[in-house]
Amino acid sequence: MAKVKVGVVGYGTIGERIADGVAAQGDMELVGVCDVAPTVPVRALIKSRKDIPLYCAVPEKVKDLEKAGGKVAGTLEDLLEKVDIVCDATTPGVGAENRKKYEAAGVRATFQAGEKTGVGDVQFNSMANYEKAYGESYIQILSCNTTGMARCINTVDRRIGVEKVNVVIIRRAADVSETHKGPVDAAIVQKVPSHQCEDIMAVSPHIKAFTVVVTLPITHGHVQTLQLMCKKETSKEQIIEIFQTNPRIVMFKIEDGFISNSHIFDYCRDLGLPRADMYECPVWDEMIHVDGREVWFTQMIPQEAIVIPENIDAIRAAMKLQSDYLEAINETNKYLRIGELV
Ligand SMILES: NC(=O)c1ccc[n+]([C@@H]2O[C@H](COP(=O)([O-])OP(=O)(O)OC[C@H]3O[C@@H](n4cnc5c(N)ncnc54)[C@H](O)[C@@H]3O)[C@@H](O)[C@H]2O)c1
C-alpha cells in the first residue's frame, strides 16, 4: 500500500515533534514542513542533517529563512499539492484560517488544542472516540492535559466503566523556552470548572467530569490528581493491572527515587531520549488509592510530547488506515517504540 503523504504546518514545539513522529512511521511519508520564520526549531532543522524539505507559508518571509541558511522548497500551496493530510501546529488562531486553504486544496488536517473548539469537525482522543473520527477530514486533538486524562480514564472505562471523574490539574506555567511567560513566583488560580472537563465530556459524553486548575512556576510537565468513580468496586492491584495493559501509561515508584516531575524528566534525559521526550503518561504507584468504586491516582503530563501519538492516530483515523482503535494505536506505538524505552 502507498504511504500516506503528510505535511506539518507550524514547525514549533509541537510541529517539530509531530514531524519526527510521522517520519518514524513505516506507512507514512513526511513530505515537508512549513513555517514563516527562522525560529529556534527552524534554525535547528536547517543546521541538522535531517533531510526534511522546508516550505514557507508567507512568500515575503522566504528571504528570512534563506538568510538563516534554509533552502525553501516552495509555498504552503506547493506543499498542499503534494500531501494527503497535514498536521497543523501553528500559533493558535492560524489553524482556523488555514482550514480554508486545506479545504480548497482537498487536503485533510489535524489541528491542535490551542485553536478554538470547532476548528475540526470532531475532538479526538484515540482511547475515547477513534471510531467517531474514522474517515473525518478535520480532526482536533485534545490538549496535553486532556489527552493524558482521556488516555487513563478511558483505559479504566473500557474495562470496568467510569461514571464520574474529578481532576485537580497542577499546570506548568510555560514550556522551557517560553520566557515571555516568566519568571514567576506564584500559584495562579482560576474559576472552576476549567475548560478541560468540557473536552473530556466531548470525547466521552457518558462520563461526568469536573476539573480545577492551579498554575505553578514549573516547566517539566503538568501533574494531575484524578478521582474516578467507577461502575464496579475495584482494587489497587486491578487498577495497576489495567494501566499496564496500555503501553502509553507507565508506572513509576517514589521509593525508586522518582519524587518529582523533574526527576522523571531527568531520567528521560539520561536515557538519551530525543529532546528528553516521553510519549507515555507516568503514573506514581504509591499515589494510587482505591476505596470501593473510588479510585485516586496522580500522573505527570509531559506536555510537549504527549499529543504526538494521538496526532498520528488521528492521521490513521482520517485516512482510514485502521478501522479498529487498538490496531491503530498499536501501529503508532510500534513505530514510536512506545512501551520499550522508559
Ligand atoms: N507547547 C505545548 O506544550 C503544547 C501542548 C499541546 C498542544 N499545544 C498546542 O499546539 C499548538 C502549537 O503550539 P506550540 O507550543 O508548538 O507553538 P510554537 O509557538 O512553538 O509553534 C508555532 C509555530 O507556528 C509557526 N507559524 C505561525 N504562523 C504560521 C503560519 N501562518 N504558517 C506556518 N507556520 C506558522 C510559528 O512560527 C511557530 O514556529 C497550539 O495550538 C498549542 O496550544 C501545545
Describe this structure in words.
It contains 12 helices and 16 strands. The two termini are 32 Å apart. Helix 6 (126-133) runs parallel beside helix 11. The chain is an alpha/beta fold and 342 residues long. It is globular, with a radius of gyration of 20 Å. It has an 8-stranded parallel beta sheet with strand order 4-3-2-1-5-6-8-7, with helices on both faces. A 6-stranded mixed beta sheet has the order 10-11-9-12-16-15. A two-stranded parallel ribbon has the order 13-14. It folds into 2 domains: 4-142 and 306-336, 3-Layer(aba) Sandwich (Rossmann fold); 144-301, Dihydrodipicolinate Reductase, domain 2 (2-Layer Sandwich), CATH 3.30.360. The protein is 35% helix and 25% strand. The longest helix is centred in the middle third of the chain and has 17 residues, at 144-160. Nicotinamide-adenine-dinucleotide is lined by residues 9-15, 34-37, 39, 57, 89-92, 94, 112-115, 143-144, 175, 303-304, 307. Nicotinamide-adenine-dinucleotide (NAD) is lined by residues 9-15, 34-37, 39, 57, 89-92, 94, 112-115, 143-144, 175, 303-304, 307.
Features:
binds nicotinamide-adenine-dinucleotide; 8-stranded parallel sheet; Rossmann fold; alpha/beta; 12 helices; 35% helix; 6-stranded mixed sheet; 16 strands
Question: Topology, pairings included?
Answer:
Elements: E1 4-9, H1 13-23, E2 28-35, H2 40-47, E3 54-56, H3 62-67, E4 72-75, H4 76-82, E5 85-88, H5 94-105, E6 108-111, E7 122-124, H6 126-133, E8 138-141, H7 144-160, E9 162-172, E10 188-189, H8 196-203, E11 208-216, E12 222-230, H9 236-244, E13 249-252, H10 261-270, E14 281-284, E15 289-291, E16 294-301, H11 307-318, H12 325-336
Parallel strand pairs: 1-2, 1-5, 2-3, 3-4, 5-6, 6-8, 7-8, 9-11, 13-14
Antiparallel strand pairs: 9-12, 10-11, 12-16, 15-16
Helix pairs in contact: 1-11, 6-11, 6-12, 7-8, 11-12
The structure holds nicotinamide-adenine-dinucleotide.
